[in-house]
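Weekly sync, protein design subgroup
Attendees: M.S., D.O., the rotation student, P.L. (late)

Item 1: inverse folding check
M.S. brought a backbone from last month's batch and wanted to see whether the design step gives back something sensible before we order anything. D.O. pointed out we never logged the input encoding, so this time it goes straight into the notes. Structure tokens as presented (133 positions):
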């Protein structure tokens, strides 16, 4: 099973979701992230704040959604990017309204991370139940 978290720059929200999902999951699900206009870098604040929570983004790269064309995506999770969200084929598309924390102060950025963590946890639990994993 493949889950793709997608946003515009693949620098912050989708990277955070991918890292948290890999950290929370028990390995039966593959998680990826990509963006419609990738920035080329992972947000340094995201790297710093997740590292303090023992979640690592240092080996992550900002990727374009075209890297996933032709790959069967079971769930496409759109992170709140509106009309600029990538349009990929997936068995299920889910939209999360997550604000982009890239210009937020650390305390607000942490609130976004916790919102993403909560959504990721609910998603993984639902997938495990739905697919008897």
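Designed sequence read out in the meeting:
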């Amino acid at each position: 099973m493949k889950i793709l978290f997608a946003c515009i720059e693949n620098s912050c929200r989708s990277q955070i979701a991918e890292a948290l999902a890999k950290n929370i999951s028990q390995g039966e699900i593959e998680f990826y992230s990509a963006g419609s206009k990738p920035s080329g870098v992972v947000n340094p604040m995201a790297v710093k704040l997740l590292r303090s929570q023992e979640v690592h983004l240092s080996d992550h790269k900002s990727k374009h959604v075209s890297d996933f064309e032709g790959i069967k995506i079971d769930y496409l999770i759109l992170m709140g990017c509106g009309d600029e969200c990538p349009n990929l084929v997936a068995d299920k598309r889910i939209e999360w309204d997550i604000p982009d924390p890239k210009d937020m102060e650390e305390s607000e950025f942490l609130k976004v991370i916790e919102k993403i963590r909560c959504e990721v946890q609910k998603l993984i639990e639902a997938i495990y139940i739905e697919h008897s994993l």
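Discussion: The radius of gyration is 14 Å. Residues 2-130 form a domain with the Rossmann fold fold (CATH 3.40.50.2300).
Action: P.L. to compare against the previous round before Friday.
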